[in-house]
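Sequence and fold
=================
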Amino acid sequence: MICSMNKKYFGTDGIRGTANSLPMTAGMALQVAMATAHVLKAHQKSDGTDKNRVVIGKDTRLSGYMLEQAMAAGFVAMGMDVIRTGPIPTPAVARLTTTLRADIGVMISASHNPYQDNGIKLFGSDGYKLSDEIEAEIEAMIDQDMEAYLPPPDLIGKATQMDDSAGRYIEYAKRALSRDKTLEGLKIVVDCAHGAAYKVAPKILWELEAEVIAIGNTPNGRNINDGYGATATQNLQDRVVSEKADIGIALDGDADRLIVVDEKGRVVDGDQILGMLALAKRDQGFLKGGAVATVMSNLGLERFFARENIPFTRTAVGDRYVVEEMRRSGFNIGGEQSGHIVLSDFGTTGDGVLAALQVLSIVNDSKKPASEVCHVFDPLPQLLKNVKYSGETPLNKSNVQAAIKGAEERLNGSGRLLVRASGTEPLIRVMAEGDDNALIQDIVNDLCDLLQNQAA
C-alpha cells in the first residue's frame, strides 16, 4: 500500500516546521491567522460587522511566544477577538473553543518534535480539527496579499489573557470519571515531556487521590520532548521500576497522546491501550459500534478485535482521520499506535490525559497488575524504518512502485506493507508486519535500500 500527501503547507496534523524558518516564521503565522479569519468569515456569509472569537493555546516551546503574538496580531487585524490561554494541552484548546463559543481554536505546538520545531493546529467552533477542504481554502489564501480584506479601524479586534484555562481543563478531565471514582491506592509516575501538561497532569492525578511522582515537569523552552515523554520512555521505565510504582504514563509535548509503562517497566503502546479500552467499554456496555485505528496499527490488534467480535475499521495516519471515521460510523473509540486515543464520549480529539484516566481507573478497579490488564493481544512482528529525502518524493518513480508491488506479492497475504510519506517531516516511512519475522526484515531493508538510492 502506498500513501502520499500533496498539500503545500498543511500536513497530517496542521502546519509544522523549524521555528524562524518557513513556514514557521512570524510573518507566516500572521498570514495563516489572517487567511483563516478570512475563510471563516466567508463561510459565515455575514455582513462583516460580526465580532468573532478565537482561542489560542500553546505548549512550552521558546518559539511559542513569537508565533502566539504573530497569530494574535493577524486575527485582531481581521476583526477577531483573541483569547490567549498560555500553555495548555491541545485537547484543552479544542474544549475551550466550544465552551467559550469561539469560532476558531489554535494550538501552537509541534507535538512530539524537538523544541526547534513548532506548528499550528486549527479547530473549528465544534472542537474538531478543520477538514481537508477548509484547509485547502486557507492554503489558497496564505500566499495572497491580505490588505484588501482588512476591516476598517472601528472593527479591529482585541486580545485578552485567560487566567483560568488550566483550571477549567482540570475540572473537565476529572469529570470524565464518575464522581465516586478515585485513583486511591495507585502509585503513578507521570512523564509530562516538559510540555503543555506539566502542571495539569500531575495535579489531576493528585486531586484524584493517587500517589504521584512527576518527571519531565520543569520546562525551560528548550527541553520539551528531550529524553522525556511518549517518544522517549526510558526515563519513565527506569523510574517506574526504581520507585516500585504500579504504573507509568507518558504524554507528549502537547499531551494529545499517551504511552503507558507497566509495573515491570515495559512499554504499552497505543494499540494495546485501544484494545484494552474497547474491550472494557464493550464489557461495561458503553461501546458504540466498534473501534477505529489507522493503517499503522498492528495486525495483531485487528485479529484481536476479530476474535472479540468487535467491529474494526482502519483509516489514513492522523487522529483527524480517525475522528472523521468515528463520526461517520458512530463509533465512540479510536486511536493510533503512537498513542493518540480518541474517546468521543468525552472529547473531539486525541487526549492523553483523558485516555490515561480511563486506563488508570480500569487498572485500579481490576486489583490486578498493569502488566496483566494492559496486555490484551500479542503483536505480530512489525518493522518500521524511515528514509530521509529532499525535493520530490521518490515514491512516484516507476521502479519504486514496482518494488513495492513485488514486496506485497512476497507477503502473499500473510502480512501487511505500508509505504508512505510522512505528513510532518521529509521522511518516507516503510512498515511491514506479518507472521514471518525474517521475511518482514528482508522486505523493509530491501525497500529502504532502494529508496535511499533513489533519494540520493
About this structure: Residues 382-455 form a domain with the TATA-Binding Protein fold (CATH 3.30.310.50). The first helix runs from residue 26 to 44. DSSP finds 14 helices and 20 strands in the chain.
